[in-house]
Amino acid sequence: MITSTLKTRPTSRAEDTRRKIYEAALKLFREKGFEQTTMRDIAAKAGVALGAAYYYFASKEAIVLAFYQEMQEDSHEAILEALRGRRKLKDRLRYVLEKRLELLAPNRKFCDALFKHAPDASDPLSPFSTEARPIRERAIEHLRAALAGGDVKVTSDLEPHLPYLLWLYQMAIILFWLYDRSLRQERTEKLIDRSLTLLINLLRLSGLPLMKPLRKAALGLVGAVAVAD
Amino acid sequence: MITSTLKTRPTSRAEDTRRKIYEAALKLFREKGFEQTTMRDIAAKAGVALGAAYYYFASKEAIVLAFYQEMQEDSHEAILEALRGRRKLKDRLRYVLEKRLELLAPNRKFCDALFKHAPDASDPLSPFSTEARPIRERAIEHLRAALAGGDVKVTSDLEPHLPYLLWLYQMAIILFWLYDRSLRQERTEKLIDRSLTLLINLLRLSGLPLMKPLRKAALGLVGAVAVAD
Asked: Residue B2 pLDDT > 60, yes or no?
């Protein structure tokens, strides 16, 4: 269903080589783990010279970023398309969250290993880093699209900030899922369902006049946790 | 102000030795990092045989747990005492959170390194582990005490679950603080202030009849994230 933009583009020899290095790296990250894999291992596995590997990717971190980026770009149209068929905000947000987990699933193990980079915004592999900005913005865009066409009206003060807050929420869900040892990650499914119920309830109430101090407090909080970019 | 229970107890030679090993370990964790320190290094630094080190602590993980435990026990009375002088819930919660950060501060660097163990409940160093249960329960107790004597009335359905939810919130604050590179961790201070404002607002409103579905949704969420112990 998901087609790779790289695969459907007319391939050139350079792209073939880049792809070979990329696939070899992901395979090694899954097998040996990210930390244990070197650029030398990747070049060897791909059957290219070390210099060639570095020509395409400045570091193994760059390969991980390319993986996240590709995951975002490849799923972009499919996500927007799927949202067109869903009206309820809960279904729309659930779809975006579950799609994200579905895309991460084949590489769950190395994403798990990467998690320790996550909270440090100065680490390029952190979702909060400058390097990850285009990836982050795509993810936020999907959440913005889910919000915009749903059946819950959001007040104009909250509206511009909600996609980013939802993205932080999505990060928390991914973290929970990475460490969810339950069968078929049933606990994550439950968490998504219940947290979305809470969220939708909160959003529905948030428009009431008596909720204004709450909205103001929430917006104050946004200022304290926003990514500086 | 904070007195160590271990230090004030009548010391025996065994306790001196245990203490020596414990202090040597913390010093090494701070200097070399937790992962890079071995039990052999710890024994050498403490000037005891490796067997002696193992006699007192089954592993370096056990030393970290002893550190957290001691931090909790040593601060217990001081926290309860300080709460007696504070009436506003916001001040009470702020005190508990800031006290926790103050206690962690001298070992911030190795706590940071330990963070990657946090989300995996099967890891003894995770705050969610069975091994960490007594430490977790003490922390939850402090939050329960802060809630109980404050100026905000909580409905009886929420009341038993709030201390645990506040503890999850405290974990998020600690995580933010560990990676806060701002001067004197000013961003964390701001985050605490604003998130507490939001929380208090939410608690004040939560008792209203129209908030019942929200409370029900919040309680549903608790079931999905509770530690299984």
From this structure: no
